[in-house]
Amino acid sequence: MDEEQVVDGLRYLARTGQSNGRVEEYKIFTSLDGNTWKEVAKGTWENESGWKLAGFEPTLAKFIKLQGIHTYGEGAQRDKFMSASEVRVRLAKDTIDISDASFNIRAELENDKYIVDELKAPIKAKAIVTKRGWRIKIWYRLSSKI
Fold first, then answer.
1. Mean pLDDT for the chain overall
2. For the residues of 49-104, what is the DSSP string, one character each?
3. Which is the most buried residue in 56, 67, 78, 137, by most CB within 10 A?
């Protein structure tokens, strides 16, 4: 990237057609200088074409590295190649911490658990914010766009 950015995910578009080189097991690293790397995510992806997402805690980075530990392949082609149709970096959204008591704001989720799958349909969640005795219900939508 041209400058340091706060990032929180990497999207990987696997090749279509043959499976040779599709990433199965991966690690993602970030760096500020291109020399010192910090592992921020690891995991596995299914052997299918289409977008894959690796999310991680927001971190300041200028460089991002996707390392294919194991790759899919037909016959003897397994672990010989790594391919990608496209790779995108997801910038972290700006957030405001309202937990500071000086703001006199309390926020809570109405339900205590949500399962989010960004690659499928968007979801809605409801939050309740209280300030000076007023209760405001906020509906928000998490978009599947990155």
1. 79
2. SEEEEEEEEEEEESEEEEEEEEE--SGGGTTT----SEEEEEEPPP-----SGGG-
3. 56
